[in-house]
Backbone:
């Protein structure tokens, strides 16, 4: 089986990661002291980590999201945003990620007077600083931003316009997130129509806490290019006891149009979107050649890295290098970066990286009695 260290060493691509869900606990503590935030549920790393991850084991999205009020609370100054963004780039690069799209909701970071533009500029500066530091250390990474509007609020058009305003400075797409049930994506149709007129990229959280109608609206009404999670598309697939597969019209459309699924296995189990890793739809969707990608969602709350997610899949499903590479190339093909950049990373970074990993895995030196090397 592939080891965690082996997986960490290969180049990986991350499309679904929340900035406010990936802070270092020590950073949360320090920023709370600096900004005067007094409501943290712990005063040391161990206790704080325990409290911020408790909701991840309750099987419900709204409970899972409760911890974010603490991380968002300490991300209300430009300096804090720059620091969190830079550390995000550093942590992803240390995990072997070479391309990432990290999302955040600018409207949540204005409580202390920052404008939406100031929020975006601070985060982009942090990504640039962290990426530059990692490049000097020999770990190249490109981090882009996705701007998220809260589906429970009414600022989606404003955030869409903000995203387009920074499209040439590091923002590559728009997203809506938050409580899914009762808040359909079609409530934000004016924002999606504006984005389509501007030829801008769209991904939508859909099919996580709510079912097929949410996915259908995201695709057919709002024109999303990717589905954030999309786990519930499995509800439109029937598999008989004899193993015969029948795709419903929506599932067939998603597969035929190669609409990417931004799946986050551990988070999906923790929020109740999937019953377990063993029964996660990712396995059958990969077998049926859907455009599946593997992601982290919230590295702090779920206590994961992209490498650990792949390692869990390798352990549970018996995945080898061909599976991990297939999923990685899926992600790179589905990224919102320009075609030339995607092709360059696939051909000069990802494929050579996996070829090297295979060669190193195959270079096992047989060992004879008493540990003596047997010549070959």
Residues:
């Amino acid at each position: 089986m592939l080891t965690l260290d082996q997986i960490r060493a290969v180049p990986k691509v991350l499309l679904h990661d929340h900035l406010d869900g990936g802070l270092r606990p020590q950073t949360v503590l320090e920023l709370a002291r600096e900004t005067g935030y007094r409501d943290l549920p712990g005063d040391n790393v161990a206790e704080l980590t325990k409290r911020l991850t408790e909701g991840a084991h309750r099987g419900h999205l709204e409970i899972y999201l409760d911890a974010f009020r603490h991380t968002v609370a300490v991300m209300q100054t430009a300096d804090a945003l720059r620091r969190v963004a830079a550390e995000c780039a550093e942590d992803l690069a240390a995990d072997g990620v070479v391309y990432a799209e990290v999302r955040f909701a600018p409207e949540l970071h204005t409580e202390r007077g920052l404008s939406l533009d100031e929020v975006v500029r601070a985060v982009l500066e942090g990504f640039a600083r962290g990426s530059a530091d990692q490049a000097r250390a020999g770990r190249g990474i490109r981090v882009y931003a996705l701007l998220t509007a809260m589906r429970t609020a009414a600022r989606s058009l404003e955030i869409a316009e903000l995203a387009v305003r920074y499209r040439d400075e590091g923002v590559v797409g728009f997203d809506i997130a938050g409580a899914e049930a009762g808040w359909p994506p079609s409530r934000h149709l004016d924002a999606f129509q504006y984005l389509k007129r501007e030829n801008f990229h769209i991904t939508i959280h859909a099919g996580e806490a709510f079912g097929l109608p949410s996915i259908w609206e995201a695709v057919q009404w709002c024109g999303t290019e990717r589905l954030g999670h999309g786990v519930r598309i499995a509800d439109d697939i029937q598999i008989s006891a004899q193993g015969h597969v029948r795709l419903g019209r929506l599932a067939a459309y998603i597969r035929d149009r190669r609409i990417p699924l931004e799946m986050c296995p551990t988070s999906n189990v923790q929020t109740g979107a999937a019953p377990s890793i063993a029964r996660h739809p990712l396995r059958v969707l990969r077998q049926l050649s859907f455009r599946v990608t593997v992601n982290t969602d919230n590295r702090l709350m779920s206590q994961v890295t992209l490498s650990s997610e792949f390692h869990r899949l390798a352990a549970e499903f018996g995945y080898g290098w061909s599976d991990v590479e297939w999923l990685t190339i899926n992600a790179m093909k589905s990224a919102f970066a320009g075609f030339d950049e995607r092709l360059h990373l696939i051909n000069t970074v990802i494929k050579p990286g996996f070829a090297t990993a295979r060669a190193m895995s195959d270079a096992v030196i047989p060992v004879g009695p008493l540990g003596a090397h047997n010549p070959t």
Remarks:
- The two ends are 24 Å apart (CA to CA).
- Residues 367-376 have pLDDT under 50 and may be disordered.
- DSSP finds 17 helices and ten strands in the chain.
- Strands lie at 12-18, 97-104, 142-150, 171-177, 203-206, 226-229, 237-239, 245-247, 261-263, 292-294.
